[in-house]
Q: What sequence folds into this?
């Protein structure tokens, strides 16, 4: 997508509250957040056209929000003008603003009051090449008077978006993907280029250069980009922790010479849940390890735990966690229309029953090794529920919750390189053990 050329806007509307995300940040609205004095830039502006040739991605310098009686105004301050696409999605309802890939250099600020149109907002890299800004709404609203203003008064380029209240009927009529993009597959980004999955050579074939004995391990760093996951009191983000551990786990496995590792993501960008499963299957994965971090209302709870797929949750806490992790696509503004088939109708069959059994054995092996690197929850460390990311029907898969960012001790450990290296090594040892002749498990005492 060109960085300039005017605003390509597809308007639609949102309704209903959503929880505030880890990057829900706003800055105090200055006077210009109410009424910019400059004339808006048009697609024909010669000065802007010259900027198309610049190579560096635009930088987001600030995001400001002003809540007023008749409108809520967002001002996104940029180093360069950009093309945007604005639409809304439902359940929960939110305004979605798609832009080219941006560098986010936004200072932290206060959250919205929650009493007006806006409940919260978040931003980040949706996928390579595309950034996304998502606004969760409390009330029916539509985006109007969208303009971009040139630098003035010490400010950079300013993308100005006004949200005005509308009736529920007007919202319902205009919400959803633009008509031109109705053919976009569920989970894809409307009207934006989709990165094709590179064909993965099958291990053991001449073109792969990988011998038959080399196992393919798919390591999935959860969340990413516009979806930060959970966060700790000191500001630690789940997406950063798991990406760091994933990189160390990949290095530890490949250093052993027995594995080829496929990372679902190797940088801070978002990947829909189903695409993570598709990546694992395209790579002909032998194991799928998804890394996450948890949080809970009780700050005393700490320690790692392992989850596997099941059509029935093992307990209420496991069911709640699965619901939260499965919200990742909704948080990132992915269209889930047409994706209403129950899990049992698609995935739970006789073949997957065998895969689920092998996943359970992998989970127990990980639990044998993790205590030498980090604390493991003393009660029910192995649980099961309907996690969307574990739904590959033919690949043994586990979701490793590395600890709790809601616990101060766990958060402090997760921030250290030493802890991440130890945990990666323990999981790599578990992968080794998984492919050895099965022995009776012998759990070790946990490292505090």
A:
């Amino acid at each position: 997508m060109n960085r300039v050329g005017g605003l390509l806007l597809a308007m639609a509307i949102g309704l209903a509250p959503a929880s505030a995300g880890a990057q829900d940040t706003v800055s105090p609205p200055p006077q210009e957040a109410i009424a910019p004095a400059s004339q808006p830039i048009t697609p024909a502006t010669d000065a802007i056209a010259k900027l198309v040739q610049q190579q560096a991605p635009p930088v987001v310098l600030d995001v400001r929000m002003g809540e007023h009686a008749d409108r809520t105004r967002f001002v996104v301050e940029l180093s360069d003008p950009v093309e945007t696409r604005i639409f809304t999605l439902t359940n929960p309802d939110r305004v979605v603003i798609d832009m080219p890939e941006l560098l986010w250099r936004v200072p932290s600020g206060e959250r919205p009051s929650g009493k007006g149109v806006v409940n919260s907002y978040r931003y980040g890299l949706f996928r390579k090449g595309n950034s996304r800004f998502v606004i969760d709404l409390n009330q029916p609203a539509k985006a109007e008077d969208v303009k971009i203003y040139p630098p003035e008064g010490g400010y950079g380029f300013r993308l100005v978006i006004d949200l005005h209240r509308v009736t529920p009927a007007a919202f319902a009529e205009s919400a959803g993907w633009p008509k031109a993009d109705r053919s976009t597959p569920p989970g894809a980004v409307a009207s934006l280029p989709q990165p094709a999955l590179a064909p993965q050579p099958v291990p053991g074939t001449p073109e792969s250069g990988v011998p038959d004995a080399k196992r393919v391990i798919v390591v999935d760093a959860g969340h990413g980009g516009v979806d930060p996951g959970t966060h700790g009191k000191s500001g630690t983000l789940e997406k950063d922790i798991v990406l760091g551990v994933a990189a160390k786990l990949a290095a530890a496995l490949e250093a052993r010479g027995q594995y080829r590792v496929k990372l679902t993501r190797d940088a801070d960008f978002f990947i829909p849940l189903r695409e993570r499963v598709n990546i694992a299957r395209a790579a002909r994965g032998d194991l799928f390890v998804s890394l996450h971090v948890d949080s809970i209302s009780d700050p005393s709870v700490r320690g790692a735990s392992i989850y596997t797929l099941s059509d029935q949750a093992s307990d209420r806490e496991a069911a709640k966690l699965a619901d939260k992790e499965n919200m990742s696509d909704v948080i990132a503004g992915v269209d889930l229309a047409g994706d209403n088939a129950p899990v049992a109708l698609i995935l739970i069959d006789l073949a997957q029953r065998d895969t689920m059994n092998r996943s359970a054995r992998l989970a127990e092996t990980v639990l044998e090794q993790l205590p030498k690197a980090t604390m493991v929850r003393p009660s029910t460390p192995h649980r099961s529920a309907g996690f969307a990311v574990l739904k590959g029907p033919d690949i043994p898969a586990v979701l490793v919750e590395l600890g709790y960012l809601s616990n101060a001790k766990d958060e402090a450990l997760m921030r250290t390189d030493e802890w991440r290296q130890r945990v990666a090594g323990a999981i790599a040892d578990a992968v080794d053990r998984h492919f050895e002749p099965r022995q009776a498990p012998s759990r070790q005492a946990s490292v505090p």
